[in-house]
Automatic annotation (TrEMBL), chain B:
Keywords: Oxidoreductase, Thiamine pyrophosphate. Its cofactor is thiamine diphosphate. It comes from Marinobacterium zhoushanense. InterPro entries: THDP-binding, Transketo_C/PFOR_II, Transketolase-like_Pyr-bd, Transketolase_C. This is TPP-dependent acetoin dehydrogenase complex, E1 protein subunit beta. PANTHER family: PYRUVATE DEHYDROGENASE E1 COMPONENT BETA SUBUNIT (PTHR43257), PYRUVATE DEHYDROGENASE E1 COMPONENT SUBUNIT BETA (PTHR43257:SF2). Residues 12-187 form the Transketolase-like pyrimidine-binding domain. SUPFAM superfamilies: Thiamin diphosphate-binding fold (THDP-binding), TK C-terminal domain-like.
Length: 332, 335
């Protein structure tokens, strides 16, 4: 960046800003450790990293209330941690251990947590959207003040399930916040190669859904957009759509050779990455210095090391348990 | 089973029985609601929910857009959110548009989440041929869903079952798919005045016999009972086993009838290749091979998309004469 970083606006609480930054760093470092563990063979299968997109999930989760549900995608480690699933059980799940949040049955792409109404971890693009609509329908029918936060990538907007779900949520005026994480690539297919209309908000507006587009690299912008969405949705104005424009710094998964984009393009985005720009602003506001940063990093590193140790020490789910949870046990 | 009402019994159509079950469920449990294409103002494509909109209101009798994937998936989400949705899919052919939600979501969430998220969802759909509705409204695809762990698949053939199975399905913590054969809606049967929930995990012998077992379910049940009457006149004593549930299959009842008669004809409106009849045949061979006197025979739908013209459709679907001929073959030792 050539320009000097802007200090934070006066109305932003310094402690809160630092907390946002810490959460983003926590997600980033967790995923870097996951990549390392993948290289060592401790994590297998698909591993989709959120690196570069942390400001989106971090901003959204500030408005997610305890009674709300979150329905996410297969790139959901960050959402799971930000929602409050303990890092130990997330890491143990990545290791396929009994102590994992899904007892090793879900893995990286299928993190679930009943306590926080975290309804996956869905690896069918668009597949979680009708479920979010249904959760909102239940909340609405039961008179509960709960919002369903439906997180998906821009690739999902080419799926029929996006259009069906958007129509149903709008038709029935349900409390769903549709959060589109637009990282501009559906796996290796660029947005302009998959959508005839690349102004994604127009698709939402065609269903008479309030829609806005925000800079997904700016955590204050994502937080503010989520707050507007929550206020609108909780006051009975039906669904809301936000397009968060962001970028994925790493490959789609560990199997991706990245033939579809050049290194320079990635580098350009990295220069404007969410951690980098927000750290600079915190520094410009006198909220962060080298010492504070080091302390914060050390604390996160300790938590991650403990999570790895927890996962390594975990119990492999016994093969004898293979067929448990195909059907509910209380009924068998 | 005769259709004359006796004391403590009453005569009722399959449609009425399905309707009574829905009515009872909606009346007794605020969490229950019905959702699907044309279930409200239209009254249901097979008129099962006629009048419900006025009685229960649009919140609980929900007409949906033609979005099978969204409204089946919304049923899953609503079930997780504490409701007890009954989703109606007009016909099994349309359910393929929601196959993602049924197979990738409803069937997987409990296991994938390590036991955290069960999906207490009931999906009803019409199945089967015989009304000249051609190749996109006549197929019997229930075996596709019976293939999938995590789902339960029930196929009521009687008025008692179509009434009682819905109530049992609603009490089940996991997804249950109910397949109602289109030719049964107008069929009459007798029902105890105090009819209620019935089990959904056991097959039932609908007619006792000693020489050949006709193993079947759903719409084919009545063809098998008719075939058994014809066979009786020819001096052949046929047993008819109604499977009632395709997942889980009741192996014990299947092996019991095989052991009893030693001759088997499986009658299934699905296609033979990769069908439920193939699965049952395999299980008999695995578990009761030495009880058989002759190889298992199958009467299935011809391997064609079901055609429109009456004579072609009749030729495609299993008929009483086909069942009689198959039973004669096995009894005469020519299986």
């Amino acid at each position: 960046m050539n320009e000097a970083p802007k200090p934070l606006p006066d109305n932003v609480d310094g402690e809160h800003a630092l907390a946002l930054f810490t959460e983003m760093v926590r997600v980033r470092r967790f995923e870097e450790k996951c990549a390392e563990m993948y290289s060592k063979g401790a994590i297998r299968g698909f591993l989709h990293l959120y690196i570069g997109e942390e400001a989106v999930g971090t901003g959204i989760m500030q408005s997610v209330a305890p009674q709300d549900a979150v329905v996410a995608t297969y790139r959901e480690h960050g959402h799971a941690l930000l929602r409050g699933i303990p890092m130990n059980v997330v890491m143990a799940e990545m290791f396929g251990k009994q102590e994992g949040c899904c007892r090793g049955r879900g893995g990286s792409m299928h993190l679930f947590d009943k306590d926080t109404h975290f309804i996956g971890g869905n690896a069918i693009v668009g597949g979680g959207m009708p479920v979010a609509v249904g959760y909102a329908l239940a909340a609405s029918m039961r008179g509960q003040d709960a919002v369903a936060w439906c997180i998906f990538g821009e690739g999902a907007m080419a799926e029929g399930e996006f259009h069906e779900s958007m129509n149903l949520a709008a038709l029935w005026q349900l409390p769903v916040v549709f959060c589109c994480e637009n990282n501009f690539y559906a796996m290796g297919t660029a947005l302009e190669r998959s959508e005839s209309e690349t102004r994604l908000v127009e698709k939402a507006r065609s269903y008479k859904v309030t829609a806005e587009v925000v800079d997904g690299m700016d955590v204050l912008a994502t937080e503010a957009a989520a707050r507007r969405a929550a206020e609108s949705t909780r006051t009975g104005n039906g669904p809301y759509f936000i397009e968060f424009q962001t970028y994925r710094f790493r490959a789609h998964s560990m199997f991706d050779a990245e033939r579809y984009r050049c290194r320079e393009e990635v580098h350009e985005h990295e220069l404007h990455g969410p951690l980098r720009i927000f750290a600079a602003r915190l520094q410009a506001s006198g909220l962060l210095d080298d010492e504070k940063r080091a302390a914060l990093e050390a604390e996160i590193a300790a938590e991650i090391d403990a999570a790895v140790a927890f996962a390594e020490a975990g119990t492999p789910e016994p093969v004898g348990e293979l067929t448990r949870y195909v059907y509910s046990e209380a009924h068998v | 089973m005769n259709s004359t009402a006796t004391e403590g019994m009453r005569e009722i159509t399959y449609r009425e029985a399905a309707r009574e079950a829905l009515h009872e469920a909606l009346t007794n449990d605020d969490r229950v609601f019905l959702m699907g294409e044309d279930v409200g103002r239209y009254g249901g494509s097979y008129a099962v929910s006629l009048g419900f909109l006025d009685e229960f209101g649009p919140d609980r009798i929900r007409d949906t857009p033609l979005s099978e994937s969204a409204f089946v998936g919304a049923g899953i989400g609503a079930a997780i959110g504490g409701m007890r949705p009954i989703v109606e899919v007009m016909t099994v052919n349309f359910s393929l548009l929601a196959a993602d939600q049924i197979i990738n979501t409803a069937a997987t969430y409990l296991h994938m989440s390590g036991g955290q998220f069960n999906v207490p969802l009931v999906i009803r759909m019409a199945t089967g041929g015989g009304l000249q509705l051609a190749a996109q409204h006549s197929h019997s695809l229930e075996n596709l869903y019976a293939h999938v762990p995590g789902l339960k698949v029930v196929v009521p053939g009687t008025v008692e079952d179509v009434r009682g199975m819905l109530l049992t399905a609603l009490a089940d913590p996991d997804p249950v798919l109910i397949f109602e054969h289109i030719l049964l809606y107008n069929r009459k049967g007798v029902l105890p005045v105090q009819a209620g929930a019935v089990d959904i995990d056991q097959a039932r012998v609908r007619r006792e016999g000693t020489q050949v077992s006709l193993i079947t379910y759903g719409g084919s049940l009545w063809k098998c009972l008719d075939a058994a009457e014809v066979l009786e006149q020819q001096g052949i004593d046929a047993e008819v086993l109604d499977l009632r549930t395709l997942r889980p299959l009741d192996d014990a009842s299947i092996m019991a009838t095989v052991t009893k008669t030693r001759r088997v004809v499986i009658v299934d409106e699905g296609w033979r290749s990769g069908g439920i009849s193939a699965e049952i045949t395999a299980r008999i061979h695995e578990q009761a091979f030495y009880e058989l006197d002759v190889p298992v025979q199958r009467v299935c739908t011809a391997e064609v998309p079901i055609p429109y013209a009456k004579q072609l459709e009749e030729a495609a679907l299993p008929q009483v004469s086909d069942i009689v001929a198959a039973a004669q073959r096995v009894v005469n030792g020519h299986g």
